[in-house]
Amino acid sequence: MQPQTTVVLAEASTPVEREVIAQWLAADGLELGPGGRAPIQLELAVDDIVDKLVSRSDDPNVVPVRVLWLPKERDGVRRSSIRDLATLSNPRNPHRLAQKWIVKRSPDRHRVLTGEPALLSELRARHLEASGDPAPRSLARYIVRSAVLALARAERSVIGDRYKVPRLVVEEILDTPAFQKQLNDIADRTDISRDDAYDRAEDALRELVATQSRLVSDLFSQAMAPIHKRAWTVHSDETGLEDLRKLNRKYPLVFLPSHRSYVDAFVLGDVLAQNDFPPNHLIGGANLNFWPIGSIARKTGTVFIRRSFGEDEIYKAVVEEYFAYLLAKRFNMEWYFEGGRTRTGKLRPPKYGLLNYLAQAVRSGRVDDALLVPVSITYERLNELGAIAEEQLGGKKKAEGLAWMAQYIRNQQNSAGHVYVRIGSPLSARDRLTAHGDVMASSGEAPDEARSRLAVQKVAFEVAVGINRITPIAANALVTLALLGVRGRALTIPEIQAILDPVLKYIEERKIPQGELQVLRDRLGLIGVLTRLADAKVVTSYTAGEQPVYSIEPGQHLIAAFYRNSAIHWFVNRSLLELSILTAADSDSTDPLAEGWAEAMRLRDLLKFEFFFPDRKGFALEMENEVLLVDPEWRNRTPTPAELLDKLTATGFIMVHRTLRSFLDAQLVVVERLALRDPNKEIDREEFLDECVRVGQQMLLQARLHSPESVSSELFTSALKLAENRNLVKPGGSELSTRRAEFAEELRSLSARIDRAESLDASNRKV
């Protein structure tokens, strides 16, 4: 039996690389053994493969080969450094003279890689199965892509998954028969030529596809690291990351972080890099695609998507295909599913656009599954909140650009304490979509667009709940919670401690995640937190009297509320319980406790655009657990509402006026403005929200609102969504005016009940 022929496909761009590969082959680098036939060496190029490989009548073993160049080892890690720029050469892709020097003087910095071999017949069969195109040139392009991917896998076995980067993406997508058919269908439907459709798709792909560079990734991360490392000390919980890394070998991971700062991506990227995860493809808005950051960011894996596609069917098809491609190739992704940074500090309602693309890839069978990973990023302090607060008062967001970025970097020069990164349990996209009624193509059922849309919304909700579940309470959140709940009064250190102590006990009882809260139990630790908030101009102190007193700095209530709101979701159920007990205590019903439970459900519906509640059954269970914290024996007896109220006040704190009042006050402003509108006329949303901000400021000056944090375009927007959900916005005649006025009165009654709850709080009793 004749020894099998081996064809080496050498990816070499310089004479030095060709010589290194030739010497390696001559030294039997392939280990062909005694009597093995000398391999045939070809260039890894389409023309060479067409002329000298695909037309062969035998069945050679095809082995891709190339030279791997490595940076110097620094602190036990081989990575490019900004100092490498001085050599005017990329250490991972050095120029010819640098290659000669490395081969002669630093042989540990290069080696020959071999990709997984395959028989020519196997490659031909795979290509036919994938494309159905028997043309030699089509097969040659497929062999090139297969060789590049095999060499990339071999390279990662040496340098680790951190440097997993895609190559030849545009070419591979454009060669996909199904995508070509889709482009042809669009061309026929929109009356453009097929060549024009293909050219526009190629242009869109080259605009969209992230062309990752290991050198740029290394240098960019080093250049940007000081922006956040100087400002924050990162605390990450790495529990479960090893299991997540194992799952990543089979499924792509889609990281969905909460979005509070422009540095979120750098903070999370560092945590993942330190744990040897490959870089994420970060999906970003085109607003950040400005020179030179845009071109640099694309080389580190950022994908810039247009804010609006309009009627551009080709661009939409390209985005959908690129998403499916990345997921099918198991490239990890990351985006901020809230659609932008939170303006209030709590999670915003999710946007579904990108999740719809992911769901379609899973639903159609393009991807077996993808794992959705909730990520919480919580900052003890943020230096960019001034602009965010200004936007809530109707100010326009400043356009991103070089001047904006320079100012942003300057703002990060001061220490801002801790940032907490928590990574939640992954959710199987396929399992969760199916559980919510989505129809998979493999089931044979007819697709149902309405069910699919609802399933995506429910999955997004589960991700949001997952983020909230792992978000820790930071020290600044509790201190601002205390100071925002006393109607502008200044508090002494003992008074602040008296507010915080029972809340800290509650946090311990519920086993809520914490971030360095132990400092608040100590007088000096609490003073340190207050001092740092004072340095940030959020808190003001007066020290000329008998003892220092602290309050929220005038004009900084929105910023203080941002810190408080990062933890507010942990106290919503407690707040609803307080209002429900007061409702029961005031009820003339024969079953006041049932009236209290009904009030809890009504409040859940009232706040559904602000917070993420479980279904009614899950919510009832959560509320029962809240009652047990107030009265551990309530299941063994039937307490009166008065008894429950006594036990509630005995816990030492009341929460509702600190957590929900600003949201309900904002709802009142919106509904009162609606009640004054002609019910027969359409409402211009932007003009109406501007009016709410202006009138809200007036009501605040008249003491008709309780706190400046209620005057927020973000809160008014959510309140308007609630009004739309209750059919109070669209024109409707005189009956609409009646319903608007009734809802306004309902909110006023609720505000009065919150006033009563506030009077029961220990911090307000003497006042």
Automatic annotation (TrEMBL):
List the GO terms this entry assigns under cellular component, sorted alphabetically: endomembrane system; plasma membrane
Give the source's domain of life in one word.
Answer: Bacteria
This enzyme's EC code(s): 2.3.1.15
> Which UniProt keywords are given for this protein, alphabetically ordered?
Acyltransferase, Membrane, Transferase
The GO terms describing molecular function are: glycerol-3-phosphate O-acyltransferase activity
Give the GO biological process terms. Answer: lipid metabolic process
CDD domains hit by this protein: LPLAT_DHAPAT-like
Coarse class of the protein's main subcellular location = membrane
**What start and end residues bound the annotated signal peptide?**
none
Q: Kindly give the Pfam families that the UniProt entry links to this protein.
A: Acyltransferase (PF01553), GPAT_C (PF19277)
Domain Phospholipid/glycerol acyltransferase, which positions? Answer: 253-380
Q: Where in the cell is it found?
A: Endomembrane system
Membrane topology term = Peripheral membrane protein
Sorted alphabetically, which InterPro entries does this protein's record hold?
GPAT/DHAPAT, GPAT/DHAPAT_C, GPAT/DHAPAT_LPLAT, Plipid/glycerol_acylTrfase
- What does the similarity note say? Belongs to the GPAT/DAPAT family.
- Name this polypeptide is given: Glycerol-3-phosphate 1-O-acyltransferase
The organism encoding this protein is Antrihabitans stalactiti
